[in-house]
Amino acid sequence: MAAVTGQVGEPAVALDVDREDLDLLLLIRRFEETLLDLFAQGKLNGTTHTCLGQEYVPVALRPLLRDDDFVFSNHRGHGHYLARFGDPEGLLAEIMGREGAVCAGVGGSQHLYRDTYLSTGVQGESLPVAAGMALHMQRRGRGQLAAVFIGDGTWGEGAVYEALNMASLWRLPLLVVVEHNGIAQTTPTGLQMAGTVAGRAAAFGVRHVRVTSTDVAAIRAELAGPIADARRRPHPLVVEFETHRLGPHSKGDDTRDEAAVRRAREHDWRERYRGRFPLVFDAADRAQRERVAAAVREVEARPRSTWER
Amino acid sequence: MQAAERVAENLNRGLHTLFENDPRVYLLGEDVLDPYGGAFKVTRGLSTRYPDRVITTPISEGAIVGVGNGLALAGDRAIVEVMFGDFVTLAFDQIVNFAAKSVAMYGRRLPMHLVVRCPVGGNRGYGPTHSQCPQKHFVGVPDLALFEVSPFHDNVALLERLVGRGEPCLLFEDKGLYGERMLADGRVDELFRFDYLDTGQTVARAFVDDTAADCVIVAPGGVARRALAAARELLVELELGCQVIVPSQLYPLDLEPLLPVLERAGLVCVAEESTAGGTWGAEVARRVYDRLWGRLRRPVLLVSSRDSVIPTAPHLERDVLLQSGTITRAVGEALDA
């Protein structure tokens, strides 16, 4: 399939769209929008961090990750979870504290564990843990890898560097996925990071790939080789996505000016996909809206979750 | 008669036994490879026999424990050696927010087989950042258990128990204890005998007279020798009968086996080497008050090191840290003897 890395403002070239991918992208988008609606209606408790604008990252990675890989997610992890399990009901039940919740409502939005997936809420903490998982996998020699999602803000944590050092030193199959959305909560990258992610990876002798496309097919074409290589000859790999957060950090805490938000929107995969696939897009979008609406109705009606300690 | 094993040798044998019996066991730490075998030689011989599973690490305590957490999450058994217990502060997040929380915060029990070994304690002139007893900083963390090595508790059995728990734990090892002999056969010396207050043999008690006591001193393993020296002095100088109780598990502490002994005591004293303030002993005292209020003859006596940094020069260090004399004086005063 012909695919090129899309530059900003230039539509990527892909000959077809996998309907499954489109459905998943739209499911995550609608799920996140719905969470913000539910918060506004006072139906959700606590906090949440949506991945609006970044949905394509885990969707692109989905077929590149194996069922026996282990995924470590972070506070902004709904898309990561949905891309791996496609289970909006379980996740919503977790967030709403209802029966059928993935973690009985104990973990909530940012602390999920299921089979080969774990998220937790402290920045940088999961990197050394993922390195340990990768060590286990390397010793087993089955070509598995540990994938860990972090943000640009996470690079402020020392744990990241301790883990990168070990991963490089010990040749661990560790895939570090950096969702570099240019803003850490309210702090732009320019105020919190000296140098670059690429430079930091290079300092540890870790291969770094920068992805600017928002096209899942193009991204896959670009990453399939490096990821397969990280499995075959175990070694760490940093994949940095230049991405854009459309929504607030959590709920109502977007301090960016309108121009900055507009610039982020210009990168939204959604409009690009709509333009490229006009025949299927609207129907797919409607279907996912209905799916999420049905999930909300169904999960809301469930009894509260119980925690069997 | 052959001399008993030293504590470090006993720990070393415990580690070798674990590695021999379970291929899932890993050990990570700084400078743990032979011929050095760890700063206190506790891992000696392990890397030679199990080169794939004994991993020497960069100086990165947080990430070492993190890697241990990853191995535990994968179903392995991870033992992490922190060279000096003071440095466990660097791994606080991995221990408290990852290891301990993962056991419960995902809504169902997730076993985490992680043991973090921490050589602790002073009286060796290592100064303020290499001499502390950080146990108190970890008291009260849900799903995190604290244990301490003692000459009464066989470390082969202890290590097997800790690795098999499925909940993370810290094992504190008093540096001064490594060179001492393990105790066996219910005999401490020509004066003191010992027994266990529970069938699992986790709570040891040393005594001259196992019936009533003027004072019962509860102490972690690292303070056991000082508590025994104080008990001897109190007996010889002041004719006060003391028993010394040494629990292997500091937290959560199962108080039940201790209660019958504490209830009959003229004084309950908790002695520890931590600096004063927010101590393990305060937690023990609170629990004792809950159970024995109205039956205690006196307030629980807490004895610890001073509320101070730990100086390097021996005369200054001795003055700050808990010594046997600290216990002797405090107990004597409390009993008006």
Structural class of chain A: alpha/beta
> What is the count of DSSP helices of chain A, taking H or I runs of 4+ residues?
12
Distance between the termini of chain A: 51 Å
Percent helix range of chain B: 25-40%
Order of helices and strands of chain A: HHEHHEEHEHEEEHHEHEHHH
Number of alpha- plus pi-helical segments of chain B: 10
CATH superfamily name of the largest domain in chain B? Thiamin diphosphate (ThDP)-binding fold, Pyr/PP domains
The biggest beta sheet of chain B is recorded as:
7 strands, mixed
**Through-space gap between termini of chain B:** 40 Å
Give the oligomer, counting copies of the same chain as homo and different chains as hetero.
heterodimer
Q: Over all CA atoms, what is the radius of gyration of chain A?
A: 19 Å
Q: Find the structural class of chain B using helix and strand composition.
A: alpha/beta
Percent of residues in beta strands of chain A: 5-15%
Give the spatial strand order of the biggest sheet of chain A: 2-3-1-4-5-9-8
How many individual β-strands of chain B? 13
Unreliably modeled segments of chain A: 1-15
And the CATH topology of the largest domain in chain B? Rossmann fold
Largest interface, C-beta closer than 8 angstroms, per-chain residues? A-B, 40 and 33 residues
Which percent range describes the beta-strand content of chain B?
15-25%
Mean pLDDT of chain A: 92
